[in-house]
Specification:
The complex is a heterodimer of chains A (116) and B (113). In chain A, 0% of the residues lie in helices and 48% in strands. Chain A is built from no helices and eleven strands. In chain A, a hairpin with a 6-residue loop joins strand 4 (31-37) and strand 5. Chain A is globular and about 40 Å long. Chain B is mostly beta strands and 113 residues long. Chain B is built from no helices and twelve strands. In chain B, a hairpin with a 2-residue loop joins strand 7 and strand 8. The interface between A and B is medium-sized, with 24 and 25 residues.
């Protein structure tokens, strides 16, 4: 098991362009979470999936943001018409089917987005 | 809404000494979980230690231990025998059930050799 992976690790784009990030969770983890972390701050929750169902969305997730997990495995996060305020680290995490005190969320390395 | 507050933006400690990082949280729930995560520079976040709110006994993981005060809604992390590899951002986090994590602002820990 190689852990949670994210691609790309870094992305530089111009304001107004669309970007898409991918997250591959740990195999057999059915829950997948997206967080956003701005410089010097803690991660903030964006959305999460159980299998392919998107169960919760933060109000931080404006209508320019969309996330999918079509087959309950990998997930994509798309940002349309990027703005400079979207510059941040986008973190993905996954957790197993049964959340017990012994289980928690395992984080990927993140995708760092810079909007010029 | 639940909130998590870390009042120490930065802390430093001499190698081999002990340091305590503070965290307070606000919730009206009685059953929840608390975590400390470590985020080394340019590396991914990893779990350091967890605490279940229903347990009175403080969690311990090798050199890491917590002081959980449920009534005061306080959850501090103590690192004993600090090592250079402990240098990182430390985040306190709250979770209720199988839901999202709510993070504090983080504390940057520096280890002085």
């Amino acid at each position: 098991d190689t852990g949670v992976s994210q691609d790309p690790r870094h992305k530089i784009t111009k304001r107004g362009q669309n970007v898409t990030f991918r997250c591959d969770p740990i195999s057999e983890h059915n829950r997948l979470y997206w967080y956003r972390q701005t410089l010097g701050q803690g991660p903030e929750f964006l959305t999460y999936f159980q299998n392919e169902a998107q169960l919760e969305k933060s109000r931080l997730l404006s209508d320019r943001f969309s996330a999918e997990r079509p087959k309950g495995s990998f997930s994509t996060l798309e940002i349309q018409r990027t703005e400079q305020g979207d510059s941040a680290m986008y973190l993905c995490a996954s957790s197993p089917r049964v959340i017990t005190p012994q289980e928690t969320q395992y984080f990927g390395p993140g995708t760092r987005l810079l909007v010029l | 809404a639940q909130t998590v507050t870390q009042s120490q933006p930065e802390m430093s400690v001499q190698e081999a000494e002990t340091v305590t990082l503070s965290c307070t949280y606000d919730t009206s729930e009685s059953d929840y979980y608390l975590f400390w995560y470590k985020q080394p520079p340019s590396r991914q976040m990893i779990l350091v230690i967890r605490q279940e709110a229903y347990k009175q006994q403080n969690a311990t993981e090798n050199r890491f231990s917590v002081n959980f005060q449920k009534a005061a809604k306080s959850f501090s992390l103590k690192i004993s025998d600090s090592q250079l590899g402990d240098a990182a951002m430390y985040f306190c986090a709250y979770r209720q059930g199988a839901q999202k994590l709510v993070f504090g602002q983080g504390t940057r820990l520096t280890i002085n050799p």
